[in-house]
Amino acid sequence: MADAAGVGNAAGVGNTAGVGNAAGAGNAASTGARRARTREWRRSVGIAGVGVILTTVYAAVMLLQILVWNPLAAAPAGLTLAEIYATMEDEGQRWSGSQLWEFGMAGVGIALSIALLGITSATRRPRPMLVATLVATIIAFGAPAYFWTSFSMGMALADTFYISGADASPGALPLYATSGLAAVAAFVLALPPGTRAPLTPTSQPS
């Protein structure tokens, strides 16, 4: 009887230990999953935050190019920026408050990136790859936004000073280059994972 009781106690202890080990492993797996989700959330929010910074810088350069650099480069030499705007107003090509169009268009990208940051922060399980794709897409659309926003100013300069309405300042080149790279990045990031080229060459079996 004593031997049977001992065997029973040993079996009970073994079962208890097995259950404890299983519970411990389950808790460890759950903790690991939570940490992974936290890391992904932080990565996603960080990417969206960088997107806000990039779109803000892009919008600032865009406004400087349209409202300052290009008018100074396109207008006859010797005219100050104030004189250029005064001449355009005298010719009826610009009016007080017309800059609201440029500022409004430049603010669209910033508003979209801020909205993306807010949505990402409020999402429990955001996907960093998707957030990066959306950031790149917003920046890629900066080039057509710049073209349409700068069109009215270019025509105003052309009609006022009888010059070409094309950009005279090279300040637009970084904008087009940045948008082009962002478009390529958005395309690559949007591809299914299995179709992307590996970052490192895989070794071939001998």
First-to-last CA distance: 64 Å
The major β-sheet equals: none
Order of helices and strands: HHHHHH
* Overall number of domains: 1
Average predicted local confidence, pLDDT: 86
Helix content: over 70%
Per DSSP E runs of 2 or more residues, the count of β-strands stands at 0
Question: What gross morphology would you assign?
Answer: elongated
Task: Using the CA coordinates, give the radius of gyration.
Answer: 30 Å
Compute the number of helices.
Answer: 6
How much β-strand is present in the residues? under 5%
Structural class: mainly alpha
* Poorly predicted runs of 5 or more residues: none
Keywords: Membrane, Transmembrane, Transmembrane helix
Transmembrane segments: 44-69, 100-119, 131-151, 171-191
Please describe what this structure looks like.
- There is one protein chain.
- The mean pLDDT is 86.
- It is built from 6 helices and no strands.
- With 206 residues, it is mostly helical.
- It has one domain.
- It is elongated, with a radius of gyration of 30 Å.
Pick out its properties.
206 residues, mainly alpha, elongated
Please give the structural blueprint.
Elements lengths: L1 H73 L6 H10 L8 H24 L5 H13 L1 H20 L10 H19 L16
Helix pairs in contact: 1-3, 1-4, 1-5, 3-4, 3-5, 4-6
Task: Provide a compact summary of the structure.
The protein has 206 residues and is mostly helical. It contains six helices and no strands. Helix 4 runs antiparallel to helix 6.
